[in-house]
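thought: fold this chain, then report.
action: predict
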Amino acid sequence: MDKAAYIQHLKLGNQAFINNQFDTALEEFEKVIEIDPKSEEGWFNKGLTLYNLRYHDQAIKCFDKVLEINPKHKPAMNQKGKILVDLEQPQDAMKCFDEVTDLDPNDFEAWQNKGDLLTKHSRWEDAIICYDEVLRINPSNTRGLYSKANALENLGKSAEAQKLQTQAMGLDQQGLIQERKSRPQQLDVYHLHDSLEDGSEIDDIEWLDRGSKHHEDGDLNRAIYCYNKALSINPRNVSGWFSLGNALFTMGKILDALPCYDKALQLDPDRADIWYNKGNLLFALRKFKEAIQCYDMSLKINPYKAEAWFNKGAALKNLGLLREALVCYDQVLQIEPNNAHVWFNKGNVYDRAGKYRKALECYNKALEINPRNAEVLYNKGIILYERNRHREAIICFDDALEINPKYVDAHRAKAIAEAEMTRITK
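observation:
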């Protein structure tokens, strides 16, 4: 194996990936794999690149190849799970996240992914169990606290939710103060890696490459260290600020991440991906109006980013602006007409607006695309029950329980519907 060529193509691919030059990155990672067909790193990075190019099926094949080489590769399991979430295959996605937590019960990212998947399907109580695991691993993980607060809010437990939000914001603020105090005393704990084999100094691009690798491996502390080293060499490195913000956001250090995105946007205000991530951060803080402004900036630059339209719709829904939310979901469906999750959420908005016939139409469309979505079947069953169509409702609950036998709400709804049918027939 030509090790020098391997390292060079890997470095070029990583840099292209950081700069969102995904076609170039793909070419470089394919060269890495050509040199070493069993390169976990090459297959994994190719998978990430294909995912960013929205070639989801091909990305999954890459992550499967990683897992064929190394069945215990947790980042590949997590990434595969995230793609399956996007493909509306929640059961298969959950299996991936379960495999990670079976291998490592202290993998907070997998628990967070589980909770986020359950939240996406409005399974608030189950999501809280997962967020509790995140907080068991790290009680100061503010992302876990914000996520649990959001679930509690949706369960109508506003007082508990507000308490957790206050706790999270306090930890964020405390973290900022503590970091500022500790900076002069920080030790260069990775000083042995600060130079190349020939003794030459590492430039900011190489530090970004290293940070990206640590980030992909889930070693966020080392990733943050590398990003900070890159920025100490070149404070105007936009990708450095963006990557640092992403790592801090993933760690749950939301108030630390926000100024990183702001600095990146100050240097390059035309980066749609940075506006989008800043919007997601503000959404996590429940600052929905500010989040919408960021999504609007992202969409002004790239009007075809379906995720930005969807998240803008979700923010509008949280503000009670249902008509505006529907406009956003329609924009997503123009880009991705077979996105079952968007049809599901559009149905939920119609349901909330009291337009039950339109809600059923959306749920039916979602089920046409993905017939094995227990949450859609459950919501459809609820509307049918409320319209006194008990027999049809029970069929929906039965179908949901066939997919997920542990679906507590579906068990409860079925029992109520059966009791009502018995009462009527007497």
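thought: worth noting. The chain is about 75% helix and 0% strand.
final: tokens above.
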